[in-house]
């Protein structure tokens, strides 16, 4: 019996001991909005043990005993202590935002700053937003989420480049902002979006610390790292989906086309081509033929992260495979990435870190835009033609019926396109911080990029009509071109930071350092002729034996360097009065002696009004900060060696009666080249209202760009600028000013334990004006329209950069009396007739000629805006992101001016007699001036786009954690759901990226609509 009592006592003590050791988990949220907070430090009080919350705010700690106190801490929120009594329920912790501190840390370049102390125009996109948007390229996440930033597509094809503009287009040269990834210059579009922790956009003089590379703004990317004192975490994310075109254009079917063509021929006094149209039906829908449906896209992403009290680590890899909606695998894109991030506290004073990223890309592409593109051919090929002939071969588009020599069967064009592009890049940095003494830290970092690319394209011997050279696309001799390019750069940063609190009220931070940057590389290009078997499988130069009349090889190499010194002083008094001053000295090899060095100072200041005693305890306004900045930044983003003369051109010389290939002067030199300067002014207001539920940010800015570095200024041909390899000079020749207003507001609130919501709206109003063009003519032309016409875009004083310059129309002539009463339009190519466009005599001289051309449109939007909404109800989450552009015009230039091409169905409302219409001119085979560039071809391209919509469901952790899974989330989403616009073309938001001529639609490859189904799992 005694033994039984001992057994019972043993079991009781064991049970009691077991009861005192249990696991605790839960979620940490914002008290106001109910939104989860990632990265919260969860510490066992008076110990070094603890963990951190994951991206969904969840945490788990094992082996706690009853009465243990957990301390929850996060920058910008008040610390919270929680006494754990049992493990009976999942904890729900609500942290109160510390509105008096606003301690969220923002990266500002060569350091960081608390959000409340930032005095510049700075915007941040966090990883939560990236997770919802699921961008294929990370640039897409900036559209509509950051005021003052506009992202345009050059093509909807997989892997195509995206253009980012911060606060408008400021120069005719390089306008893209510089991307800094963890301290080194990188390329935003190559990153795996799931590797990014945050994106910080510096829009004003705050970017002056980067001097010469900051004129167009700075995008700072911070990648994910492991958290200290956190257990190993595995995160797996995947999505799969399918794509389809987001838009097709309403073209004429076969019957409509035949009837229209008969009318056109009859109006031109010619025999009608279709004597019987009754059996034609709808014919071929060429867009349906080239656009594929259910085109696959798949992405996998896995990461491992964690850390101890001394070491943090994060390792990740991703795989993206996307086919194109035109040509499928022939316009496919594949991206693989691998990343390693390590940090270690070697001693209490010395810390080291490294971040290395490897990227592999493979891309195949089609002719995507402009004259001769696949879309161009699909829109212009008559619907009466069939895709295949009776033998199953591709139908050939004739040249003898008014279809010209450019238009070919788009399916044949896809089938006969062969190319391949491979790109490999490794980039990263190695850095260390050494605390020399308590207030002074020395930091150094070596950043690097090294990339290699290889491309190959094959021109198959083929005739697209019956006789040689009937079509411009005919290939009489097969060839293969192969290129190999190697690009490298490295940077070395060394700077010291002194941070000191003087007395109780004064805080001083000073940073001084220097940067060494070098970029170098080379390229090799070669072409071989007569490919064996006229086949892609044998398309390799080593197999070609054909000889060429010209030199089929070329190469280049380059080397450029910058040496920079910088300093910054930051001061605040009681956290209320904020001031910083920066200066940077840059020396660049882009400029010649006497102009190499530039100095770029800037100043910022702020006043936290809500900290003043007179402000009181306002319950409506919880925080108010006024700020201002002014500074000068530089730009040297131009081709190398523009200030000297080099033998980079090709020339043919005669020696002893024999033609000899030789060299000639390349780009015309300009020894007076100097820095382009950006003078940036900004005043702003930051507010937090209604218990910090509402945040408002307002900025007014003026960005004046002086001494523009404008490349390829037209000069006399006597200089040999038209020779192969030669080029016009780059000069400092202009001034452009962008001014505008940015406004953003967001609201976060938790209505109950089950339902929370956050919403945000931002709008940017922008005015662009050219103040000077000092090139001798007073304007610079760009872009193209039709064939053989004058340039449709200009940069000119008093107008926005790239405005459309052409004839203004005033409806249609309705009768001969109106024609006779109007000045002659013979200079347009033919005298006008009733039903033709009426050109306005803008200068009133009674003559219609090129002097009547005027401003007929502006490609720059008056306003851009984004509206975003997120809601959480129990385990469900929903998000929608939109973007709108208002006031931007676009030129319709994807229609060929030939008599027999197909047309959009708006021509069904054409002029057919007096009073029938006053908008769309008559159709005829006779010569008219209707195809001359005029306001008839300029359309309002304003639009509203639903960029992303996503619905998700997260499994209750109390079920998933039983099998060791901390998070399981399923979601379904749609990217690029719908675009509301009156514009007739494929994409009102597309641009070829050129500052002059960027708003001309040559037939842009449309952005695909993508349906996604995804899964997120954390272990």
TrEMBL record:
So which domain of life are we looking at? Bacteria
- Pfam families in UniProt: CarbopepD_reg_2 (PF13715), Plug (PF07715), TonB_dep_Rec_b-barrel (PF00593)
Name the keywords, alphabetized.
Answer: Cell outer membrane, Membrane, Receptor, Signal, TonB box, Transmembrane, Transmembrane beta strand, Transport
Q: Residues of the signal sequence?
A: 1-21
Any GO BP annotation: siderophore transmembrane transport
Instruction: Please name the Gene3D superfamilies in this protein's record.
Output: Carboxypeptidase-like, regulatory domain (2.60.40.1120), TonB-dependent receptor, beta-barrel domain (2.40.170.20), TonB-dependent receptor, plug domain (2.170.130.10)
Q: What is this protein called?
A: TonB-linked outer membrane protein, SusC/RagA family
The species this protein was found in: Flavobacterium segetis
